[in-house]
Write a structure and sequence with these properties.
Length: 392
Amino acid sequence: MIIKEIRKNIYAIITNDWDRRLFDELIPLPQGTSYNSYFLKDEKNVLIDSSDPRTEEKLFKGIEELKIEKIDYIVSNHSEQDHSGIIPELLKKFENAKVIASEKGKEFIKSLLLIPEDRIITIRDGEKLNIGDKTLEFIYTPFVHWPETILTYEIKNKVLFPCDLFGSHLATSRIWASENDFLLGAKRYYAEIMMPFRNHIKKYLERLKNYEIEIIAPSHGPVHDIPEVIIDAYNEWVSDNVRNCVIIPYVSMHGSIKKAVDYFVKILIDKGIEVKPFNLTETDLGELAINLVDSATIVLGSPTVLSGPHPYILYTLYLFKILRPKTKFISLIGSFLWGTNMLKYIEDMIKGFDVEIIEPVIFKGHPTKEVFEKIEILAERIYQKHKKLNLI
Ligand code: FEO
């Protein structure tokens, strides 16, 4: 547990979860994570977000170390249990404390944590709360990450507490973002948690332009002492801009797809296109997600399993469907022996997305000279598409 006064009488209580390797039983965490609470000491004492139940003991140690004898308000920016999970225990210890949440937040914490209604105060979008020397403003931001989410802004010190937004899954002993190499971790976090809500975030970034922000204090990862760095990164990630990059998630059961993909990779590199092949039997799905953020093109490589693609390819397509990246083009290098319906699966999975299918290369058995020629044509088509978008 780390305690740091980030502004006068505003303390970060950071509980690192060094060894956690999976979040929501789904998301890989190669660098662990942290759960950050913030204590604002004033006439009315406020705790912003709690912590994950995994680190309850650490949070209470922080409370003890800060000699906190009274908490008047606990702000629940977001009801997911990694931030709200210890609120019931805090309410037992601080008998007069009330929880502040959005209307939907109230519904969620009542349901998830069984918090009694009379311990919850709801606030409206834009509502302010004076706590003495400081004033809090609550900003409704549905879907970063759940529909009940709010951000809290402390007006006097110009500190934004955005909970999940602008977070990173990174356990670190250095609390300031400027002391960490955090951007790749933040991009991974964006890819896995925030990317599905890209259009919402665009609107919120616009709205946040109306606020002077000197510190962004998220509830995961380092505290942003130079807010422009993470705000600029988010502006780029949520924009429609894509990179001259082809990602190739593939599976090869008997080597044919591997041969075809290796050739394809070489041709793309020769054309000056960045390439990221991902052997799905070995890859870290987080790495794949990071590259989905801004790569212009995806080419799947799959053998036919029964009549469809390999299940790992279907899983990748499902990830694509839920993460909603801004990919412009998609294609397939596929193999079969006695019949295939692979393309149909892919078309069905991407229905409704603004992504163009480039004619795939689907071949029988081992790749032949003609197959390699078709792969060259596919690479040239991608090159022309990227060129048309001025990516090359
Ligand atoms: Fe960090 Fe959506 O919880």
